[in-house]
Amino acid sequence: MASITFQNTPVTTAGELPAQGSALPAFELVGQDLAPVASAHLAGRRVVLNIFPSLDTGTCAMSVRKFNEIAAGLENTVVVCVSKDLPFAQARFCGAEGIENVVAGSAFRSSFGEDLGVTMQDGPLAGLLSRAVVITDADGKVVYTQQVAEVTEEPDYDAAQAALA
């Protein structure tokens, strides 16, 4: 379990992020159109998982906007923004914000959070996903991870971009 905080209150997660060099656990999320967003469909491309609690918070919304900008300049890379928001809410947000360079995936009916160790186990956001970034190479091997220590803070975009360079 990772020890993080939410507004300086200690929170634990369901586990640890996958280790660098390990294979990313297989996952299936629900896309905005209710079709599966599965790791198997992303094979052969680098994958950036931008994981967060909910689009209904300023910090989460900002991370989606920022990764949307970053994704515009990446080749052979797909950025998947993952939360437990319903696909309808994700579609509404992405449409209103002009988000076109990332894929939104809902973990509302999958074991994604437990499989990647990011489900918050306690605190006011228990059951939602913690803020984290996981990046794989085109072979599905994890090359970068960040479990953001304070849920209300943004991820390290520069470090994520450096991992993709």
How would you describe this protein?
Disulfide bonds join 60-94. GO terms for molecular function: thioredoxin peroxidase activity. InterPro entries: Redoxin (IPR013740), Thioredoxin-like_sf (IPR036249), Thioredoxin_domain (IPR013766), TPX (IPR002065), Tpx_CS (IPR018219), Tpx_Peroxidase_subfamily (IPR050455). It catalyses: a hydroperoxide + [thioredoxin]-dithiol = an alcohol + [thioredoxin]-disulfide + H2O. Pfam families: Redoxin. The protein has 165 residues and is α+β, with helices and mostly antiparallel strands. It has one domain (9-163): Glutaredoxin, CATH 3.40.30. Helices cover 23% and strands 26% of the residues. The protein has four helices and nine strands. It has helices at 58-72, 87-97, 112-115, 157-164; strands at 3-6, 9-12, 28-31, 36-38, 46-51, 77-83, 103-106, 132-136, 142-147. A seven-stranded mixed β-sheet has the order 4-3-7-6-5-8-9, with helices on one face. α1 links the parallel β5 and β6. The radius of gyration is 14 Å and the shape is globular. The model has no long low-confidence stretch (mean pLDDT 95).
Would you report the number of β strands? 9
> How many structural domains are formed by the residues?
1
Structural class: alpha+beta
Give me the CATH architecture, please. Answer: 3-Layer(aba) Sandwich
> How large, in whole angstroms, is the Cα Rg?
14 Å
Question: What letter string, H or E per element, gives the SSE order?
Answer: EEEEEHEHEHEEH
Provide the helix percentage: 10-25%
Could you give the distance between the termini?
A: 30 Å
Beta-strand content bin: 25-35%
Which sequence of strands runs across the widest sheet? 4-3-7-6-5-8-9
Q: Assign an overall shape.
A: globular
